Amino acid sequence: MSLPPKDGHFDPFAILTPRLILIPTPVAINVNSYRALYASLHADVHFCSMAFGDHFPARNWDDAQTRTVIQTRDIDRSWNRHHVGDFAVGLRGPAHSDDTTTTGSILTDDAFTRFAGDNLEQIQWVGYAGVRDATTTSLPAADAADADAVGLPPWQEMVELRYGISSQFWGGGIAKEAAEAVMGWAVDARGVRRFIAETERGNSRSGRLLQKMGFGLSGTDYWKEPSEVEWELVVQ
């Protein structure tokens, strides 16, 4: 099981799936090749339109800006609050093809070093997947600031699932594999009891993906955006 940050130090760990390695962004932020991938996603007009809608146009961030975005939006607002957040999603390459580590296992300490070691820059990063407390990250500011007054559940039941995969890998099941791995970790390591998500109404691809993972329409109006559809999955 992964450990939360202590005194500003984050113990690195990884989640493995049959095809993927997932690294939390407090580690991945220092990987040049991942920052480059993250920036390229948000510079892709098609990706931004599908993922975020027209209100979030593509942006051309330099490396310093990319690092700042990851630090402020994910590490400061997610990992440093409830020890949940985004994971960099990479492909397990030929060097790991003979690895017998149990799928879905968490690698920490020496196991992480043996598996990933100094090879993080060589991994082919394809996107991100994460879970975060929506009340501190993405809900309208008024509701987030006064969660109790508006009757929101505790944060373990307001955990937003998010993912973004490079368009060249769409349709291959990578988003589902990564999202399910992160959700499993969140339940086991952080006690999450309910996941929520939102998709743009025109993004039927993400809607179908959420349904495959067991999400259903929630009927909530957390984000208060007519252009968005809201979903939920209660942990059984």
UniProtKB/TrEMBL annotation:
PROSITE patterns reported in the protein's UniProt record: GNAT
Tell me which species this is from.
Answer: Aspergillus nanangensis
Q: Locate the N-acetyltransferase domain: which residues?
A: 149-236
Which InterPro entries does the record match to this protein? Acyl_CoA_acyltransferase (IPR016181), GNAT_dom (IPR000182), N-acetyltransferase (IPR051531)
Lineage from the top down?
Eukaryota, Fungi, Dikarya, Ascomycota, Pezizomycotina
Which molecular function GO terms apply here?
acyltransferase activity, transferring groups other than amino-acyl groups
Q: What is this protein called?
A: N-acetyltransferase domain-containing protein
Which branch of life, at top level?
A: Eukaryota
